[in-house]
Design brief:
Elements: E1 3-7, H1 14-20, E2 26-30, H2 39-44, E3 48-50, H3 55-73, H4 76-84, E4 105-109, H5 113-124, E5 128-132, H6 138-144, E6 147-148, H7 151-157, E7 160-163, H8 177-180, E8 187-191, H9 200-208, E9 212-217, H10 228-231, E10 236-238, H11 247-265
Parallel strand pairs: 1-2, 2-3, 4-5, 4-7, 5-6, 7-8, 8-9, 9-10
């Protein structure tokens, strides 16, 4: 095998690379994240790795984040299900109540490209925005008035917490029993980042105890398997890893994945290469 074109749920480790043979030149991942690929193993073997980041993907994920947020706080899924099973008997003043977002605080964990797009939309909803990340974004602080805070401070003051961080050993179960105990009581959690960032067992406990009012997840710790307790909760929205599922984003991803292969074969470094330091010692 000279080329591997893979998906995020395909685990490509050194054993797979060796099984492909010494002529394997490029691994193109049809995904933005690449934690499914052993980058060090690929680099040590002279194999180019590419992924598919783009503004189209970022926009799609930001939009889905907002779709989940609005659906969760306004209880859209719950009320839709009630109508479909015949529970709607007429207008009542206190059914399916939820908070307004205007004036509430949105905590964004990871203010990268996607996090910034989520923040810009939050400004339109007149929300207060706080963020936490490895580095400060002074440009967005000036443009949008977002406020940098520590992780613990963000959790304690946010009405909605939205995750936009990569999957890594550093972020594994970043949302756990200890961090969930610091959430503002009655707040909401949105995760369109990586499933491994949330300890699902701890999340279930926080939802049961009403520490959290609800959660919306597009990614899961052990995909495609989902904690069965989450599936049975009315105040939880679950979508099947579809945050980037727009026609535009998926088309762009496909083009980028194929172009990375073609460029590498032609001897040109692809713009979306992950391990740039492999280029001069790559397999040819």
């Amino acid at each position: 095998v000279d080329i591997i074109l893979c998906l995020l749920n395909d685990r490509i480790d050194g054993e797979v690379m060796d099984a492909a043979g010494p002529q394997l030149k490029v691994i193109s991942n049809y995904a933005v994240g690449f934690d499914n690929i052993d980058i060090d193993a690929a680099t040590s073997r002279g194999i180019v790795v590419a992924n598919t980041p783009s503004d189209a993907v970022n926009e799609a994920v930001a939009e889905h984040t907002w779709a989940l947020m609005l659906s969760l706080v306004r209880r859209v899924v719950e009320s839709d299900e009630a109508v479909r099973r015949g529970a709607y008997k007429g207008w009542e003043p206190e059914i399916f109540l939820g908070p307004t977002l205007k004036g509430r605080t949105l905590g964004i964990v990871g203010l990268g490209r996607i996090g910034a797009m989520v923040a810009r939309r939050a400004k339109g909803f007149e929300m207060k925005i706080v963020y936490y990340g490895r580095s400060r974004n002074s440009e967005l602080e000036q443009e949008l008035g977002v406020i940098y805070s520590s992780f613990d401070e963000l959790l304690s003051m946010s009405d909605v917490v939205s995750l936009h961080i990569p999957g890594s050993d550093d972020t594994r179960h970043m949302i756990n029993s200890a961090s969930l105990a610091k959430f503002k009581k009655g707040s909401y959690l949105i995760n369109t980042a990586r499933g491994l960032c949330v300890d699902e067992h701890a999340l279930v406990d926080a939802l049961k105890s009403a520490t959290l009012a609800g959660a919306a997840l597009d990614v899961f710790d052990n995909e495609p398997n989902i904690n069965p307790e989450l599936i049975g909760m009315e105040n939880v929205i679950l979508t099947p890893h579809i945050a980037s599922a727009t026609f535009e984003a998926r088309s762009e991803m496909a083009n980028m994945a194929v172009n990375a292969i073609l460029e590498t074969i032609r001897g040109n470094m692809p713009s979306n290469i992950v391990n740039k330091d492999v280029w001069d010692k790559r397999r040819k």
